Amino acid sequence: xxxxxxxxMSETDLSLIAMLARGYTTDSAARELHLSRHTVGERxxxxxxxxxxxxxxxxxxxxxxxGFLSTRMWPPCRCRCAVHASRGKRCPPRRDDPxxxxxxx
Length: 105
Known about the structure:
Elements: H1 11-21, H2 26-33, H3 37-51, H4 56-65, H5 82-86
Helix pairs in contact: 1-4, 2-3
């Protein structure tokens, strides 16, 4: 992996990376984020390029090392709020999101 300075990450980028850390496929992440499969694939490719990572596993590791994902919380937050996950907090439960299993600490 080429050493690259950590880029700024949007909330959507962090959500996508948290999903990748949980093992989501491109298709399942696209459904969760309400984006097309193509858009998610392009976003992953852009993140790989911006970070200098060669694959998704390296990208997830890079995000843990650079503090974009918290090592204090595993598995990463399953809901779309990866910003909380990157700060080592669990998201408050969301009534409108049936897949959100997280609870406040």
